[in-house]
Amino acid sequence: MPLSPKKWSKLECQQLIEKITHRIKVTYAKKLSYAGRLQVITAVLFSIYSFWGAVFILPQSVLKEVDKRCRDYLWGTSEDKRRVPLVSWEKICCPKKNGGLNIKGCSSWNKASVGKLLWQLTHSKNSLCVKWVHDIYIKNDPNVWSHTVPQDFSWYWKKLNSLKEKMQEWYVQGKYILTPKGDYSITSSYNALLGGQVKMENASLVWSKFAQPKHRFIAWLATKKRLLTKERLGQMRIIVIDMDCCLCDDQEIETSQHLFGEPKLVFDVIRRKHWQKLKKEVMAAIWGATIYHIWTAMNKKLFQNRNVQVDTIVTQIKKEIKERIGMIKLSNRGSRSRGFIQRLLCNKRYAVPVFLWKLGAL
Ligand SMILES: [Zn+2]
Predict the structure, then answer these.
(1) Distance from the CA of 142 to the center of ligand 1, in angstroms?
(2) Angle (deg, nearest 10), helices 60-75 and 106-123
(3) Residue 12 to residue 14: CA distance in whole angstroms
(4) 298 CA to middle of ligand 1, Å?
(5) How far is the C-alpha of 338 from the C-alpha of 224, rounded, in Å?
(6) Predicted confidence (pLDDT) per residue in 252-263, tens digit
């Protein structure tokens, strides 16, 4: 247990930030999809959780800066160009079932993780380290909760004790109550620090395992209506001269509804069907792939003035879904749906529903 007595210096903080975010710097030049960047961020943050943040109380300035670098990297902001975050970092740091990306925000994670030390202090009294802390620091107080920190004690000890107030809510009669067995869980503590979260409808369908990661990310943004359509740019007070949809000649305003349909309607249809779970997930994956390809078609039109043919997209979607299903081993139950999947991918008849879905009409 590191009871480094001194507060971190500015230089130490800077070095630590550089060390932690080194991987972001290395991959900045590579063109990665949102999903790819999300993976890099997860790896960067994992290094904090598993090493730095597990025992050290890191200064707020370090945690904030690491969060900022991860956030900028995700949305593509670099030194020479600024990009608007499409979803707030706070939201992103929630579990997927609550509408986030399951990224663990540094600050809360560090608290939750260091909270384990306090738990150990109350629960593993036989460990040599804990005995030592009790002898040196807690001394005459009955336990760590009722202990008041004398002014001349170390920075680390003071900091650790300052976290107690929030953590006390997780204990009833000295027992940790966030897990059934009473064993400390960093994730449970982290979620408790996030506070009450609203459940995201249809999260399991948006994150269908049959969808490619890059499809899922875009589908997630579409569900939140955060993809940059002309309508969305308008909402963000960015002036757009021509509001017409860039993909069709219908002279319709380029809204999220027009381009991607109403995800909720599509999910309602999928839910109502008496299909096996697997079939529902495959359908949701096709929906996600469709959204992704409409989005890329839009970008190709806008930035390269290239038109993408619908037939090409349909072929591509079938290929991608087929690959994905091939990667995921079907259970016995699932293999009963094999016939359905085969029909879906081989039969021409099924190409049409894919695009009806776009309109939320199916
Ligand atoms: Zn259109």
Answers:
(1) 70
(2) 140
(3) 5
(4) 10
(5) 32
(6) 889 998 888 888
